[in-house]
Amino acid sequence: MSEQAQAGQPRVVITTDSERISDAVLEYALAMAARQQLPVVGLLIEDTDLLNSSTLPFSREICLFTGQPRLLDTRTLLAGFSDMSRRLRQRLAQRADPLALHWSVSSIRGRRRDFHFEHLGEADYCIYDSCVYGSNQPPHHEVRTGKHLLVIDGAGAAFYNNLTALLAPFSGQALQVTLVHTSDLGQEPPLAELLPAGTRLHHLSRQQLPQALQQAGQRFDYVVVSRRHWLAELAPQLAQLNCPLIVVG
């Protein structure tokens, strides 16, 4: 059901610069929305870097990875953005309507590697599909069974309440959670009590986090961080992830 959400209502927002959201991310987002009866928003980024490049004199010489030349003019780009929005609407309609979920598609202009928090509500669950940041399938990607999440802590009880909702769709699956301590140990709620039964919990120090983010595509299915505890120094690495990123209020 295509419908705008009420102001201030939590939403599940999938941010992408393409209609090609991975099936796994879309299935997870819809499962979480269905459990909490939350509306789903597909937020399509219209890349301003491409738009700016379209006015340059050499833009007609830019080629795709196929080696075929393309015309990179503003009219062509805008038509392409419109077509991507249409296809994203079709895909959400096919997947969300059978679940009786309210959904919508919005477009914003911005840099594709930015996080665009100004367009998001404080209570939103924001999922940045890995196609925004690079390859969905990095080189030497390991075949994993179950799911493995990297969770960056330090946001207090509200973050862990949101984390419980994030993990609920994984109930019944083989689940691993690696928790990165960014505050003093012992300050977070007893995470083991909040995790689905059978979850394997690992711990990682703050000093080990940069290396873990570099290897995220090979080790983790999702990286989770709190918007309220946004680590500005990590933003460049988070923007280069080869796995989906989830940001919660």
Helix content: 25-40%
Q: On the 0-100 scale, what is the average pLDDT?
A: 78
Strand content: 15-25%
> So what's the CATH class of the largest domain?
Alpha Beta
Based on helices, strands and strand pairing, what is the structural class?
alpha/beta
CATH architecture assignment of the largest domain: 3-Layer(aba) Sandwich
Count of discrete domains? 2
Report Rg: 19 Å
- Strand order within the widest beta sheet: 3-2-1-4-9-8-5-6-7
The helix tally amounts to: 8
CATH topology-level fold name of the largest domain: Rossmann fold
Contiguous uncertain segments of 5+ residues: 132-143
Overall, the morphology is globular
- Oligomerization: single chain
How are helices and strands ordered from N to C?
EHEHHEEEHEHEHHEHE
Main pleated-sheet profile: 9 strands, mixed
What is the straight-line distance between the termini? Answer: 25 Å
Number of strands: 9
- The fourth-level CATH homologous superfamily of the largest domain is HUPs
Structure description:
The protein has 249 residues and is of the alpha/beta class. The protein has 2 domains: 12-53 and 72-131, Rossmann fold (3-Layer(aba) Sandwich), CATH 3.40.50.620; 147-248, Rossmann fold, CATH 3.40.50. It is 29% helix and 20% strand. It is built from 8 helices and 9 strands. It has helices at 23-36, 48-53, 74-96, 157-167, 191-194, 209-214, 216-219, 235-238, and strands at 12-16, 40-47, 103-110, 125-128, 147-152, 175-180, 200-204, 222-226, 245-248. The chain has a 9-stranded mixed sheet. Strand 8, helix 8 and strand 9 (245-248) form a beta-alpha-beta unit. The longest helix has 23 residues, at 74-96. The protein is globular, with a radius of gyration of 19 Å. It starts with 11 loop residues before the first strand and ends with a strand. Residues 132-143 have low confidence and may be disordered.
